[in-house]
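Let us work through a complete example step by step.
Step 1: write down the sequence.
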Amino acid sequence: MKRVACVLLAMCIISAASLSSGWAQESLLDEIQKRGVVKVGMYLQYPPTEFRDPKTREPKGLEVDIANLLAEDLGVKLEIVDMEWDAIIPGLLAKKYDVVIASMSRTPKRNLSIAITSNNLEDYSTMALVRKGDTRSTVEEFNKKGVTVTCLMGGVVEVAAKKIFSQRDT
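Step 2: predict the structure and record it as tokens.
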């Protein structure tokens, strides 16, 4: 009886050890710190937030600055992986990089496959660039016939522009 109890106890310890090793898998943060590099997926064709400097071809922009701060805070080097827009989410899911830092809006479809943090540009989601000396500064001043509005096509920006500037020339 004593021997059976010892065998059962040993089996329980082995089972617990094998289960705990599954629970004790390295986190992504552990992997990044061990590797010494954080890999960030970006679409470097979206100035001013993420783009390549025309002269040096180096990544530039607000999102690049954020990626550099992330690497600095983690105490690791930064590796930017430049992807086509349609490949950003599939690349993340395929673990080609650790994180995406991009001007990406939340959509129900995206929420099904990835987690999106708060928008770092929320306060600047509507902005207009005008010629030097142009004094217009409100949506109402731009939302009228004779005004041409441009934006990135095919996404939530286009939908918002059509809604906000409903009276503009198309």
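Step 3: interpret the result. The longest helix spans residues 2-23.
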